Amino acid sequence: MQTAMQTHESKLVLSTPDHFHIILIDDIVSCNEVNSKTTVTLQNGEQYSVDLTLDKMRQKINREDFFQPQDNCLINGQYVNKLQRIEKPELLLENGQVFSISPGRKDEVLRFLNKITRIQI
């Protein structure tokens, strides 16, 4: 179990009893909070569970390309492949993760999408 986290420029340091895991913020695909612990999923599939709330994790990451489609998750927009608009709004990520968009977070997702250059067909 990870016990602490520090930031340095574009990296995070996750510390475990035996190791310091130095990860690039760009490699973070998603962060999910359950019971005040956040699981960080990386591009290579590795996961780390840290004793940090999602709010504190977001403060540590502090990047505009991360956004919250739900109260309990933080997504790196670099890994979003699709946004399903019909029926149930969902985000599909490159690694196969699917996150529904809560009505209260719809505006945050739209703000993120507005930052991306769009070509309409």
What does it look like?
The protein is mostly beta strands and 121 residues long. The protein has a single domain, classed as OB fold (Dihydrolipoamide Acetyltransferase, E2P), CATH 2.40.50.1020. It is 14% helix and 44% strand. It is built from two helices and eleven strands. The strands form three sheets. Strands 6-5-4-8-7 form a five-stranded antiparallel beta sheet. Strands 1-2-3 form a three-stranded antiparallel beta sheet, with no helix packed on it. β7 (66-70) and β8 form a beta hairpin. The radius of gyration is 15 Å and the shape is globular. The protein starts with a strand and ends in a 7-residue tail after the last helix. The model is unreliable at 1-8 (pLDDT under 50).
